[in-house]
Design a protein that fits this description.
mainly alpha, transmembrane transporter activity, 2 domains, Growth Hormone, Chain: A, 14 helices
Length: 414
């Protein structure tokens, strides 16, 4: 898997991704502390609104900015997005009101909604070989999972030596370093798409999704993955500290177990996809997630003590593994279902549609969980996941699995 880092362009872009992820992780910690400084006991409300703004920006902005920059080369788009994120991050230490946080978070996440799909759409052109691209997807999944573990530990270590305001400086450095690495990378030549009306450019990705049965099926699995992610992200702390009366360290352990399951699958995915079709692998994860959430409801309702804790840790490990089984190969479908010119729009549509699922599942997991209890909300998420699996199956059942795209010749570096 590490062998693909011998490709100098991909090595620089992957390094840029890791550094930007670490910067974003530091930003999340610092933002929570800033919210507490400004709002005190209402910091949770400030963070909740800020995270909602983040999701709204992801859903609404990605297709718009992709349409606006569709005729620009990807390199200046990525550099501009990184510099925009650095500019917002450097402003955050001077914030004194909650509304200022909301505006800056919208601007920062709008830049991220421009950077991420553009970055993801470039990688298939940098790594035209299917096997190398699959290994790159696994590395990317590992990067996301490791960031969720490393960033809080790094922030905790830095906070023993400095004020949290300095964490924003770390974020700025991360985005600037990412921009420098993008500048240093030699991008393959990617022809601009044919000129079209703005509305056509805006809807190109969504229309590609809807006309492709394979990509329509991916929309259902996006919803299934969002049910499990919402249960884990929103309710792990409630489950561990509220229901089980365990410590904050156990919250971290449970979240780490979920991440470990995801990383385990990411490591084995390239070999798995050498022998099995990606859709079969993804659908197995989609079927497993509602079953695991159903078992979560039963474990919470009918077990107690050490057996309950141990069983939940195992379930969280399996939830992470099943979620990664869906997410890691998903970009292979996007690559296969789009031309090089249409790829940014298709990746932007996936970015937008997948985050739209979180706008459904996060409120379900949070609001209904507090009203109805965790077993009941787990059952609601199970029903939601079953709907997603059914939608995917109805689109994939009679659709032959396409032959993997032929390996393309290496492209001229510019």
């Amino acid at each position: 898997m590490i062998a693909i880092l011998r490709n100098p362009t991909y090595a620089k872009l992957f390094s840029a991704q890791i550094i930007a992820l670490l910067g974003t992780g530091l930003l999340t910690v610092a933002l929570g502390l800033l919210a507490f400084d400004i709002a005190g006991g209402d910091a949770g409300i400030v963070m909740g609104v800020a995270m909602s703004i983040k999701m709204i920006a992801y859903v609404a902005v990605a297709p718009v900015t992709t349409a606006l920059v569709s005729h620009l080369p990807p390199k200046p788009v990525l550099i501009g997005a990184d510099l925009s994120r650095a500019g917002v991050a450097v402003s955050l230490p001077f914030v004194t009101e909650a509304w200022q946080i909301y505006i800056l978070i919208f601007l920062l996440q709008s830049a991220s909604a421009t950077f991420t799909p553009t970055f993801q759409a470039v990688i298939p052109s940098v790594l035209p070989d299917e096997g190398e691209y699959t290994r790159a997807l696994s590395l990317s999944r590992l990067a996301y999972d490791l960031e969720s573990l490393v960033s809080p530990m790094l922030a905790a270590a830095l906070l023993t030596m400095m004020s949290y305001h300095n964490l924003f400086i770390g974020t700025v450095i991360g985005f600037l370093a990412s921009a420098v690495l993008v500048i240093a990378a030699r991008f393959p030549h990617i022809a601009a798409p044919p000129r079209a009306r703005f509305f056509d450019r805006l809807t190109r990705g969504a229309r590609t999704f809807w006309t492709s049965r394979e990509l329509r099926g991916l929309m259902g699995l996006n919803l299934v993955a969002a049910t499990a992610t919402a249960m884990v992200i929103v309710n792990t702390v409630v489950l561990v500290q509220g229901n089980l009366q365990r410590t904050q360290s156990d919250v971290a352990l449970m979240l780490g177990t979920y991440g470990a399951g995801s990383m385990l699958v990411a490591l084995t995915m390239p070999k798995l996809l050498d022998s099995l079709p990606d859709r079969k692998v993804m659908l197995s994860g989609g079927v497993a997630l509602p079953i695991l959430l159903l078992s979560t409801a039963g474990i919470i309702a009918w077990t107690t003590g050490i057996p309950q804790w141990t069983t939940l840790l195992i379930v969280w490990l399996l939830l992470g593994a099943a979620t990664s089984t869906i997410l890691t190969p998903s970009a292979r479908l996007l690559r296969r279902g789009s031309s090089e010119q249409a790829r940014p729009a298709v990746f932007a549509a996936q970015f937008s549609l997948s985050h739209a699922c979180f706008l459904i599942t996060y409120p379900l997991a949070g609001v209904l969980g507090s009203i109805m209890g965790l077993p009941a909300v787990a059952l609601i998420l199970v029903a939601t996941g079953v709907l997603g699996v059914g939608f995917t199956t109805s689109n994939w059942w009679k659709t032959p699995h396409p032959i993997d795209i032929d390996q393309q010749p290496a492209q001229t570096q510019t």
